[in-house]
Amino acid sequence: MVKYSRDPSKPTKSSEAMGQNLRVHFKNTRETSFAIRKLPLVKAKRYLKVVIAHKQAIPFRRFCRGVG
């Protein structure tokens, strides 16, 4: 496991995640996580469902010059 540098101020309202050997693209994962950051869980799920349905796009902010 990873040791985090500090404990969250509200442990009941925060989460931590980690993955290893996942077949995902770093750039897509990073932009998706930044898009749903600080959203309530219900809004984040709704937003991701709309994105999957191709009705809204996730904004690429850092890696916007040639995503591939």
Which descriptors apply to this entry?
single chain; 68 residues; mainly alpha; 2 helices; 34% helix; globular; structural constituent of ribosome
Which H/E pattern describes the elements?
HH
**Gyration radius, rounded:** 14 Å
Largest sheet: none
Oligomer: single chain
Shape: globular
Helix content: 25-40%
Segments where pLDDT lies below 50 for 5+ residues? Answer: none
* Strand residue percentage: under 5%
- How far apart, in Å, are the first and last alpha carbons? 31 Å
Number of strand elements = 0
Mean pLDDT: 86
| Count of DSSP H/I helices | 2
Structural class: mainly alpha
GO biological process, one term: cytoplasmic translation
Protein name: 60S ribosomal protein L17
GO cellular component, one term: cytosolic large ribosomal subunit
GO molecular function: structural constituent of ribosome
Explain briefly what this protein structure is.
By secondary structure, the chain is mainly α. It is 34% helix and 0% strand.
Polypeptide structure, described:
The chain has a domain at 25-68. 34% of the residues lie in helices and 0% in strands. The protein has helices at 26-36, 41-52. The longest helix has 12 residues, at 41-52.
Write the layout of secondary structure elements.
Blueprint (H helix, E strand, L loop, with lengths): L25 H11 L4 H12 L16
